[in-house]
Amino acid sequence: MTSSVTHEIALLFSGQLAPFVLVIMAIVVLIFSHILRVSLGVMFTLASLCLLAAWILGFGNAIAIEKPFFAFHVDMLSKVGLKLLLPAVFFVGFIILQKKTTYDKKAASLLLLFISCFGAIITMISHNWMMFFLGIQCLSLPIYGLIAFDTDDKQAVSSSARYLVLSLMAMAFTLFGILLLYAASGTLDLHEQGAMMQEIIVRAPGLLTLGFAFILVGILFKASLFPFHVWAPEVYQGAPLFVVGMMVVILKSVVLFFLMRCFFVLFAVDYAHVATIISFMAILSMWVGNGLMLREKNFTRLIAYLSIGHLGYLMIPMVSRTSIAVEAIFLDLAGFGFAMLLIIAAIKSLPEKYSTHATLEEFRGLLVKYPWQALVLVAGFISMAGFPLTIGFVGKYAVLKTGVEANLWWLTINMVLSSAVSFFAIARFVISFFDSAGCEYSDQTQTPVVKKAAILGAALALVMFGAMPQPFIGWVKTYASNLDSIHYSSHDDEKSVALHK
Amino acid sequence: MMLPLLLMVLFLFGLLAACVRDPSGVLPRAIGGTGILLAICIAAIIAQQVWLAPTNAQWLLSFKLPWISSWNINFHLAVDGIAFWLMLATLLMTACAFFVARPAEHAGSYYAAILWASAGLIGLFFSADVFLFFIFWEVALLPIYWMLVVHGNSERVTATLRFVVFTQLSGLILLVTTLGLVYANFTTSGVLTFDYHSLIHHKIAQPVQMLLLLGFIVAFLIKLPSFGFHAWMPSVFTEAPAPILLVGILVKSAVFGLMRFTWPLFLESSKMVAPFLMILGVVSVIYGAIVAFSQSEPRRFLAYSTLSHAGILLIGVFCENRAAYVGVFILLLTQALSTGGALMVIERLFLTNPRTELTTLGGLWEKWPRFSSVLLMFLLAGFGFPIFGTFVGEWSVLMGTFLEQPVICVLTLVGVVLSAVYSLKFFQRLCLGTQNDRSNALLARDLSTKELSLYGALVLMLLGIGLYPTFVLKHLNPPFLVTATDEVRDTSLASKVVP
Q: Which of B125, B39, B136, B119 is nearest to B79 (CA)?
């Protein structure tokens, strides 16, 4: 007993769980500096330094932690996911700083964001259903609050309540599913369940199917894949934009990385049925998301449908089981998240009427009224649409590549056709920026030069990464392509062999 | 080395022109002009190198850098006989577009768009890596979208949307087909490569091969456009500002794509689909001619006549005959000049009123003699009047088609005759007859001497190609195997084609 506790403490400080510790540190820093009323800039800088340290250190060089610490294992997925998560958290924090509100509210929003980030890290490194459940709740609870936290908008309250109720219901399904899997296998550990999979399929196929189906309800609800997407437009519409950013970038990516682990670890043996079901949902998700974009008049809802459609594409590498799947998911999520947060930052630097309940009509002639913000938005949206020489194209190309490599022709064809539809919707929106009839230059926003430079620089980076993707792809590859590092502490070498196929 | 330098010069000078703040527009114009002049100098050096290169080389000039090495994609620029001449034509048209560009506002970005569109198109002709080809295919469009949506006429938003949707659909299909080709080649040969010359030797089996071919063909037909895919064209021609004559080159890039990606890659499948595409070509020729006949808006007239001409190109590409292939190549160059020239000249009608209709015009010959005579030259060249380069091209295509498919040839001939009819009818309505009262609304002057000399130079070039076409054929290598009969036909043809 004592030796195990010492081992865990040693592990904590040996650097292998550095991000875990550093994010807790960031939270503590935020709390104390709030008490001491340190200025927001300093507070955020300190917290960001913790994030930066966590990003650089990562989970150390060790492939996996030999002896699990509270059922946390580190594998390649969590390493890659962390590299994606922390910049997104930083970016959302940056957007929070732009809010026009009081010190207390900004500080509290930052704190909630970092708590959410802590939950995200737990989810990413958990290999145990209970830990996953705790992590994902810790990730989403601050979001319920943040939606309605700092606004007089009635719709925000209803959004928050709706999301809370629906999300908790969905998670209850997941909890029930976890129990069913436990009933079938007698363990909550993903690896142990994975190792027993052959046996469970014979012994209790009903429990397994039902259990995993229930689990998927919650997971896919969080990611908002068809048919669990209905809440998304409604909730996003009432939520502040940075929370939308959190939901479509952080929450979605974390959930996807965990889902990927489920597929890799749990269903290394029997896989076909789940893949078929997910493929159907993915195709419908592409069409529903992109199709409904055509008729949408509200900006935030447009973002929601964009995200739903995009999630459909991401399911291609998810079911492909090729060695480049993780790389593709990472590239695509990174591109999508980057463009999305850039769009949100640009909109935040426009007057207030563009951030809440903005209709698409209000963006007409934006290029004349607010030239530089409009150009940033154009860059962001054409990246979303997957136009070459943007980071979005690199991601979309990687996804398409996995689809072609894995011979998933149905998914690929649907992706191409539905993304043509989304391209039309996006093009119509973006072209309306140029429709200058009756508009004149009216930029009264007085954005500070630093902020303007940051946003424009990010837009430039979006294009630079798209034009010269090699360093970026090479860097991702060092993490993602080495599937050997999906290491399972239990003795299942044949499984990692199977993954290579 | 000169190849990337050419693209860099166009790109950087465009960037510079876009960044300079000068409301009067003089400085951007000077910068852009310098860029084009420098590009022409570099092109001259390239021409010299190409001239000295051995005729049987795989590429005449080549430049290769690793680009996305994880995916085995190279930044590989290379020149063959077709690409070289199309590059020259593009530069020439860019200079013309630059000359006629008269931006009311945002002058810097306007000139930049012209230079970037030119860089994109030249890059497209130069790319020897299929991925790079796709990238340039898309990138060349972006500045054209910009010109159309910022500087177009009143209905520009709708026109742009239509153009964007069609061209992007084409781009998506091209992307998937390219990927499909590369991975199909990977599964059969085990080598993951995007290099054009490595892909030529693929061993892809039949159903897949046919699908890939159809993918390429559809992607290119949308941009050509052939009958059935032409909905974007009239509105772009009417709403675009003057430098849209670059669209003339854009259209040619589709034919270039067809020449690159059909016969050399999929000989067997191309044989199977060729008759259908020739029929489609004939339909385009006749449909375009008939619709052009009834147009009362001059730019729509030019749009439909371009559609009709594109049909001849389609027939020539797919009739699997060396003579026709050579004809297509000559037509590519000469039609770019004649259609571009006609678009530039016609633009003068819209200087004072962007919604001028043919019904309000008439008898322009007396008022604008220079305008009318230059327009007549371009129209004559357009329908292939002898001694113009277009005649040599059209004649060669028809000759080749007659040897392979006489019926198609006869039907195309009907189209060619119709094209002469509608062109002359158009000229008659516009320039001859009594001076229409309402045409007094045209307050602009006749062509200035400067403009006249530019158009004169274009006409001279058309004449030059018409009189001595072998000059442009030096490095042309048609992809068809030379058989004994071909040789016979070739020599007999050559004696007829070359005066």
A: B125
Torsion-angle region of B278 (φ positive above 0: left; ψ -120 to 50: alpha; else: beta): alpha
To the nearest whole Å, the CA of A471 is away from the closest chain B CA by 8
Pair of tokens at residue A158: 């209803």
pLDDT band at residue B472 using 50, 70 and 90 as cut-offs: confident
Tokens in use for B49? 């190198």
pLDDT tens, position by position, B148-179: 888 888 888 888 888 988 898 899 899 989 98
- CA gyration radius, chain A: 22
Specify the 3-state DSSP secondary structure of A105. helix
Contact A219, A139 (CB under 8 A): no
Which residue bears the tokens 């259903």?
A129
Alpha helix (H) residue ranges in A294-408: 299-320, 325-348, 366-369, 371-385, 391-405
pLDDT digits (tens, 9 = 90+) for A5-54: 666 666 666 656 778 888 888 888 888 888 888 888 888 888 888 888 88
pLDDT tens digits along A441-493? 776 777 778 888 888 888 888 888 888 888 888 888 777 655 544 433 333 33
Which residues, listed in sequence order, are joined to residue B77 by a DSSP beta bridge?
B63, B127
d(CA B228, CA B235) in angstroms, rounded, equals: 15
Nearest to B253 by CA among B305, B310, B178: B310
User: What span, in angstroms and rounded, lies between the C-alpha atoms of B98 and B150?
Assistant: 16
Strand B73-79, strand B61-68: pairing: antiparallel
- Which has more confidence, B245 or B173? B173
- Closest chain A CA to residue B164: A427
Q: What is the pLDDT of residues B267-280, one digit of tens each?
A: 888 888 999 999 99
Q: What is the mean pLDDT of chain B?
A: 85
Confidence of residue B257 (pLDDT cuts 50, 70, 90): very high
- Tokens representing B134? 């796709």
CA distance A365 to A438: 8
Q: For residues A482 and A463, give the distance between their C-alpha atoms in angstroms, rounded to a whole number.
A: 28
In whole angstroms, what is the distance from residue A374 CA to residue B244 CA?
24
Chain A residues within an 8 Å CB radius of B180: 404
End-to-end CA distance of chain B: 37
Residue B358 is encoded by which pair of tokens?
């043919």
Q: How many residues does chain A have?
A: 501
8 Å CB contact between B124 and B140: yes
* Phi/psi of residue B266, nearest 5 degrees: -130, 70
Element (H, E) at A241: helix A241-245
**Inter-helix orientation angle A252-261/A76-97, to 10°:** 170
Query: Which 3-state string (H, E, C) describes B27-53?
Result: HHHHHHHHHHHHHHHHHHHHHHHHHHC
Pairwise CA distance, residues A230 & A430, whole Å: 25
For chain A, how far is it from start to end, CA to CA, in angstroms? 41
The whole-number pLDDT of residue A490 equals 35
Bond preceding residue B103 cis, omega within 30 of 0: no
Q: Which residue of B142, B168, B180 is in closest CB contact with A420?
A: B168
Q: What are phi and psi of A29, to 5 degrees?
A: -55, -45
pLDDT the model gives residue B479: 62
Q: List b or e across B220-248, with b for residues whose CB sees 16 or more CB atoms inside 10 angstroms.
A: bbbbbbbbebbebbbbbbbbbbbbbbbbb
**Residues of B in Cβ contact (< 8 Å) with A423:** 164-165, 168, 172
Q: Does B176 touch chain A (CB under 8 A)?
A: yes
What residue in A sits closest to B136 (Cα-Cα)?
Answer: A388
Which residues does chain A have within 8 Å of residue B179's beta carbon, measured at their own beta carbons? 400-401, 404
Selection from A70, A74, A76, A71 nearest residue A15 by Cα: A74
In angstroms, the CA B157 to CA A437 distance is 11
